[in-house]
Amino acid sequence: MATDTISTDIPAIGLETNQNPHTPGQLIWRRFRKHRMAVMGMIGFGLLLLFVVGGSYFVSEERANAVDLQARLSPPSSQYWMGTDSTGRDIFARMIYGGQMSLIVGGTAVMISVTLGTLIGGLSGYFGGWLDAILMRFTEAMLSIPQLFLLIVLGKFVGRNMSDVTILGKTVSSSVFIVIFVIGLTSWMFLARIVRANVLSLKEMDYVAVSKSLGSSNLRTFFRHLIPNTMGVIIVSSTLGLAGAILSEAYVSFLGLGIQPPTASWGNMLTAAQTFVQQGSWWMWVFPSVFIVITILCVNLVGDGLRDAFDPRSSRHL
Predict the structure, then answer these.
(1) Which of 137, 195, 201, 289 is deepest in the core (most CB within 10 A)?
(2) Neighbour-count burial of 5, counting CB atoms closer than 10 A to its CB (0-12 exposed, 13-18 middle, 19+ buried)
(3) Taking Cα atoms as reference points, which of 292, 299, 310 lies closest to residue 110?
(4) How much of the chain, in percent, has pLDDT values that exceed 90?
(5) 176 to each of 25, 102, 249, 259, how far by Cα in Å?
């Protein structure tokens, strides 16, 4: 009698083999891509980085600081693409190195701010009690310190009396460090409050209780479970803080109390241009102004997109 053979090639019922699970990083990236303005901001910021970083391989810093009085106040031309300033220095070259300095100041200040805000807010929310009370009172006291006033005072009475410093063969004014530390030390308080609120909610989650029951120490739980799950807030705050730090450096340098020549920054380039606005030398202030505006706009767009991407309740569905 013939036996019926059952085929083993029957597809599993209810299983969708054409859909693969996505990691949290992939989901964040997919939500970010839905934000068209954020993608445009990321592209614009990438092109800006290409200009200020890649440009230094083709244009030397000596050219940016070279004085040629015979070419002073020359308009944009084939020789000087963005014209020259009042001492004959090439504005195109100074835009490259001025952009580097502005981004370095902003990035370093944000690193200081994010580190302090994450540690103070996280430790305050996780341990609570007397430590929470002390750290939050300290945070509230720091909020009462006006950043701009402190920058102006230290820049006027301290920065100008300090000699230039040579780092990696590059001479920079000591006022750079004053601007970095003042911005970094006076802009972490809002992030600390946000991180504290997140940690307060996260430490009540089941996975934290399981981690402690398995013998995980407080520091291990804090750095392995709580801080990584707060990275969304930290990253968004970093991008928005970078825009604020660049803007702070620009207007303090514009007042003549920030980064001092010969170190170029977009802010002190505007300072040098203000006396020539009425004389028709438009190129001296247009290019630094445009680059500052584009940088702030791109960074804010990226930060807005990251905020939506890290929020699973965002209206931008996958």
Answers:
(1) 195
(2) exposed
(3) 299
(4) 14
(5) 36, 10, 9, 5
Amino acid at 186: T
Q: What is the pLDDT of residue 165?
A: 64
Residue 50: what pLDDT?
Answer: 93
Is the predicted pLDDT of residue 14 greater than 50, yes or no? no
Q: Helix axis angle, 36-49 relative to 283-309, nearest 10°?
A: 130
Residue 124: give its domain's CATH number.
1.10.3720.10
Closest CA to 125 of 220, 215, 214, 222: 222
What per-residue confidence (pLDDT) applies to 40? 93
Mind listing the pLDDT tens digit for each residue in 87-119?
A: 888 899 889 988 888 888 888 989 999 999 999
Residue 133: which domain range?
Answer: 90-309
Closest Cα to residue 119, out of 143, 141, 139?
A: 139
> What is this structure's pTM?
0.78
Query: pLDDT > 70: what percent of the chain?
Result: 83
Q: Is residue 62 part of a domain?
A: no
CA-CA distance, 265 to 178, in Å (whole number)?
15
- How many independent structural domains does the chain possess? 1
Structure tokens at 298: 């791109």
Query: Which tokens belong to 66?
Result: 């070279």
